[in-house]
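Quick one: structure tokens for this chain, please?
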Amino acid sequence: MDGALVLTIAIVIVALAFDFINGFHDAANSIATVVATRVLSPFKAVLWAACFNFAALFVFDTGVAKTVGSGMVDLNFVTPYVILAGLLGAIAWDLLTWWWKLPSSSSHALIGGYAGSAMANAAAVGGIGQSLDVIIASGWTKTLMFIVLAPTIGMLLAHILMLAVVWLFHRVGRRFAGKLFGKLQLLSSALLSLSHGGNDAQKTAGIIAGALFASGYMTEFHIPYWVLICAYSAIALGTAAGGWRIVHTMGTRLTRLQPHSGFCAETAAALSIMLATSLKLPISTTHTITGAIVGVGSMQRVKAVRWGVAVNILWAWILTIPMAGLIGWLSMWAIHFFL
């Protein structure tokens, strides 16, 4: 078998492994609130989320995939090895933060690792001064803005929804409200899982398409339908496997949730993610749902949010892109050294 084909197949497999880990790592985003409020058991919750992760294939276009695949790193500097090294950086950081029980962003780990490996390749070929030539500034500007905007929008929307719910249902019996919002949470968690799949699976699809283009198997960059099917399947399977270490952090340690607050957090996060997806931006679903949970927690009272846990999560957010980029950089240098 041709060596280039073997390498491309290996990259596709590694990319889908990352996608699986993404679903595994980010399962907490989709199910933490619905599990914390005891609307669904953990087993039923992950199956529910996985189904809607895959269903997103039929709802969203490929705008995010195209941004990740060709809008952030100049494809003239991309080789199959660059993509492989970038994936290794993202996977390594994802696994480390999973072990530390921190809900970091798989999305930012991916783009950080990809950028780091591409910069290392440019430095190895043209000197360290060429490193930044690979970066497409316009693609990064919006993405970096949404590192702040995504959780902020999620937090504000959740806060507004909580105000509306409290005002509309303050005279309704607690037992009736609990049952009503328990049912509504099934819809809000489905919407969150749908939006999660619609944004996150596309990132892997974009990386795989980039690998196919860099290997010469596509004459122009586009997203093949079989790539989308594989990406959405992998993230759904990863979600079904569940990331229980992070569920505890998201669902119980950050703040205490009730069915009505869980509904508000999930709905706010889903709407925020869908907004970004419509803008073709690869945002962090982790950042967004965390911001929404903080929003509903602070609505109850400021002390209801465990700010020490929130600060640890914030540090994981800040470090994700540079650390995944560093691992991607080192991985690319290792590949240059051994080849």
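Residues 12 and 208 are 6 Å apart (CA to CA).
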